[in-house]
């Protein structure tokens, strides 16, 4: 891209990250051609409401993201990217068409990990929840009031859907293979807390439980589940929520460092080639990016959260317009996410990976309103809030400053004695 | 040589304190000679508003007064008064967990339905007040409009009979000094405040009794209702009612007056508001940034707080200089420019954190209705004094009068 | 219209609920749920909500005139 010809940027992934990058490119003055390609039939839409208010039916299911009228972007929906011709600088679409680019942003995100047994996954009544279409189908199904919904998986999607089911007064069972749900995201103590909240709300929460096989009726419809412990659950509505798989297959053969962990990139969001050097003109942002996080000693992470998608897209956009690496800025976002379930808002700020200490520092778990911190080798690395978001900004500063654990001693609403729990490796 | 903050408190600088702030912000956390810490940068103010080591319970403890030598005063009157004052501490001077419970009750009474239900009445009152200006060539906007509008609204919401309202004028002015640390410290003011509080409390006690006998659709009735277990005790009830009345008398008046003053200083925005009333919400947010009715709030450090290269020691009074944070160039592009179209206007005009202004939604409704109506109905308004005279308060800052020349009143 | 709220930023001040109660609702103490696709006729209320947010977490836009992605894609194809 010369100074005179701003060139053309192709963004692959009609996603939050993709749209955020497009907005940032225009905000930074990019005047060239801008194209957004996505495999779903929708313009970029917001996902977090899908597992909450959309299912509950509070408002309509259309979560299309606001797109400024003057964005001047060509949006190509319903079109999957099938390959990347790095030498020819073109994105190859599923129908064979080539989209030439000067710069390309990979923001293809993730998809719901399917149930490993394809025959069972194909049964009517077995669903995943990732896309708008998934949410609309499940919303319709919940309206028909199934006798029991079963969720398999111990993550946030499971708990959010279970919460909606209880609010709609639909019986629900959650099957979690681990001893504690949500532990990977928020640690064992908070996972145990949420387990209690869910049970109090009437969720049939089964820990250490796994499906041995599914049973179908004569017409290919799910009828029940047999668990590994021999127990049986009658249901015709199962939601598989066992994580996400990164959409990198289309990059096969492009010579990029892409694997099941995502598309490897450097701190400037530049995609790396298989040999570890930066690929010319290719950037990545959002769930698909696998990047070195400076808040965790440059350990590689892929962050599947809303805040990172926006922040990383903005950095990538800025760096796409830089003339050379000296003009680039590093992506140093402190990961954050939130969840709404059972009437509570849980927020997490920082990285809990490898944390070895945990303590409730404001409020009390018993009141279901508290703030907890995570420590690693004596430093504060993350904070979790349950309905206490207004204290978070002070703790954000503490994490960024690497404050000793526990941070911000003294003050209001602190427990009489702060009890630090040691986090076991297995429970992390 | 007086400090920058003392110069800010000096009434001579009331009309334009903003010039001092740039100097003040050079040191984000600035220790004063008396041990108070003044914080004038946006990031640091915002951080402290959300810091659990900062207490809002910073009213001076009356037990610390010097001895008078009169045993009855020192051993009986003072301690009793101190105890009464302590029990009457309203929720803006309280911390969790008490604060949560009290504020929660108030928020429920300040319900969305009730606050929004005030729109129609506010419209009516606004136009009635403007109608009364017909035939006048010179008006004082404060006296004729900015003061009576919010006062009538808050009295109506609380359930204070309109005929009793004039009594609150003097009471509110006196009690507002509790928010001015430079005034509230001296003993004379304290005693005067206590006497005023006693009068207003007597009045409200009777009113509360009446509400309990005959509940109406108003905030006092709601707060007075409930069975013994969940009911506010009478100390808290009276303290809350006084707080809401004082706040309703002393703040929105400044928002409206500052708004009109600013529009007359930048007439292109007045013209735009006349043509496009839908820009009123963003104008109001910019007024709250540019000329915040509450210029600073005080807090108390409960622990040593390292911040911006300084450590605020435990026990130190802290002044959060909102009006300065709102003009911090590190947060706002071109901060001295009045620009309703600025993006991401995260001003601190209503505070932040646990104590975010309870009355903010009401103030926004009143200001929007008032400013839209004034922009359309005042013909050729012109400032007769710029700057106008200001009231003495530095925290609750606003003109004492806004003399205007007008060429008449347009039809509603 | 299209609305999105950055719920990482949201601290539950509920100012949007006062400004546009049919479009913003608090579920519990802090959980905000909101109308992602309000009617254009409700523009004033949505604008009030966006402006009143103390942490500026609300983004709202008028909807694209029409879902013209196909036309635009064609135009982009030609431009190639």
TrEMBL record, chain A:
Task: Give the cofactors, semicolon-separated.
Answer: FAD
Q: Which residues form the Reductase C-terminal domain?
A: 337-406
InterPro entries documented for this protein: FAD-oxidoreductase/Apoptosis, FAD/NAD-bd_sf, FAD/NAD-binding_dom, FAD/NAD-linked_Rdtase_dimer_sf, Reductase_C
Q: Show the GO cellular component annotation of the record.
A: cytoplasm
What GO annotations for molecular function exist for this entry? oxidoreductase activity, acting on NAD(P)H
What the entry lists under Pfam families is as follows: Pyr_redox_2, Reductase_C
Residue ranges of every copy of the FAD/NAD(P)-binding domain listed in the record: 8-313
Q: Which UniProt keywords apply?
A: FAD, Flavoprotein, Oxidoreductase
Q: Signal sequence span per UniProt?
A: none
Output the PANTHER family linked to this UniProt entry.
APOPTOSIS-INDUCING FACTOR 1, RIESKE DOMAIN-CONTAINING PROTEIN-RELATED
What protein does this entry describe?
Answer: Rhodocoxin reductase
> What is the gene called?
thcD_1
TrEMBL record, chain B:
Say if the entry is tagged with keyword Isomerase.
Answer: no
InterPro entries with a match to the protein in the record: Cyt_P450, Cyt_P450_B, Cyt_P450_CS, Cyt_P450_sf
Named cofactor requirement(s): heme
Q: Which Pfam families match?
A: p450
Keyword RNA-binding: yes or no? no
Tell me the keywords, alphabetical order. Answer: Heme, Iron, Metal-binding, Monooxygenase, Oxidoreductase
What molecular function terms (GO) are annotated for this protein? heme binding; iron ion binding; monooxygenase activity; oxidoreductase activity, acting on paired donors, with incorporation or reduction of molecular oxygen
Q: Which residues cross the membrane?
A: none
Database matches in PROSITE patterns: CYTOCHROME_P450 (PS00086)
> Any idea what job this protein has?
Cytochromes P450 are a group of heme-thiolate monooxygenases. They oxidize a variety of structurally unrelated compounds, including steroids, fatty acids, and xenobiotics.
Q: Which PANTHER family does the protein's record reference?
A: CYTOCHROME P450 YJIB-RELATED, P450, PUTATIVE (EUROFUNG)-RELATED
Q: Which family does it belong to?
A: Belongs to the cytochrome P450 family.
Protein name, per record: Cytochrome P450 107B1
Q: Which organism is it from?
A: Methylobacterium hispanicum
TrEMBL record, chain C:
Which superkingdom? Bacteria
A single GO molecular function term of this UniProt record: iron-sulfur cluster binding
Q: Is Ribosomal protein tagged as a keyword?
A: no
Keywords from UniProt, A to Z, are: Electron transport, Iron, Iron-sulfur, Metal-binding, Transport
SUPFAM superfamilies per the record? 4Fe-4S ferredoxins
Identify the InterPro entries for this entry. Fe-S_cluster_ET
Protein name according to UniProt: Ferredoxin
